[in-house]
Amino acid sequence: MDKNLFKMDKLTIGTIPIIDTHIHTTNVANISYEWSSACPELFKDWTIEQYHGDTNKLNICKGIFVEVAASTFEKETKWIQSISSNEKSIIKGIVAHVPLNRPFDFVDEYLNDILSEKIVGVRQLFQSETNLLNPFYLEKSYIESLQLLAKKNLVFEICIYADHLPSVTNLVGQTPDNRYVLDHIGKPFTQVNENTDNKWFDHMLRLSLNPNIFCKLSAGFMVKSKTLLDAKPYINHCIKLFGVDRLIVGSDWFFSRSLVEPKEWFEFLLEVFEENQFDNQTIRKIFYDNAIKIYSLKIDSPK
After folding, report:
1. In this structure, are residues 64 and 120 in contact, taking their beta carbons and an 8 Å threshold?
2. Phi, psi (5° rounding) for residue 55?
């Protein structure tokens, strides 16, 4: 990697090195997706080539593929491992779907089967859980499977709505040896129960007190009724709570593409960082370095 890349006096979004930690791709001919009927407009092939086209004015150095809620999750993992096996692939890490609510022996065997250098994490969506008092992910058997991930040095990515935050805080506190990444800053604009008060700000404070959770500043929390100006207080709250060492960035391509393009999203984050008077080194840390550390990526760090 060109060392001069990291020695610029003035950072611009076209030159700052970025690890996009939230990229989705699909293969609809061979993989079944749980959301296909709910989001027919998105149900088509989304390829890495299309992603490159949408980000060609950015300096995306590396990327993390995040599972796309495939019902045939085994096929999805094998497929993304195959297409990212070329050393020139931008995908340097894979967050695979693993159903941790299956029997413990299945989970252990399946993890051992898929483990490779590029498998850096696991995700199973929590956002569809409607039982906010006793969610499935607080069951003893689920927590035992989660603890397997710590032993295998794998991150668990948490994708929730805002009113899941109290139960997720409980989960994170019970499993201090696990590393967690909170996707889309906990989706502050969306709740399971829209009739209750949204206490995202307070709940995020409690969650952030756990040192084993990191916050992903990814675009997946944006909704049609909100603008980037509306999002700014939420990003600033995350900066205040998690500090610069526990923040990473992601585009949520392709799901958030219709709401905010990757370039627009990353420009917005850079603007917020500059308003916080972050120096170049700190900005590069959030856009690039932290992802290497959090996901234990086997790639070069900036010099």
Report:
1. yes
2. -120, 20
Tens digit of pLDDT for each residue in 153-205?
A: 999 999 999 999 999 999 999 999 999 999 999 999 999 999 889 999 999 99
pTM check: above 0.90 = yes
Strands 91-97 and 119-123: what pairing? parallel
Q: How far apart are CA 290 and CA 302, in angstroms?
A: 11
- Burial class from Cβ neighbours inside 10 Å (0-12, 13-18, 19+) for residue 131 reads exposed
Produce one character per residue of 73-102: b if its CB has 16 or more CB atoms within 10 Å, e if not: beebbbbbbeebeeeeebbbbbbbbbebee
Q: Could you give the domains of the chain?
A: 15-295 (3.20.20.140)
Nearest 5°: phi and psi at 167? -70, -35
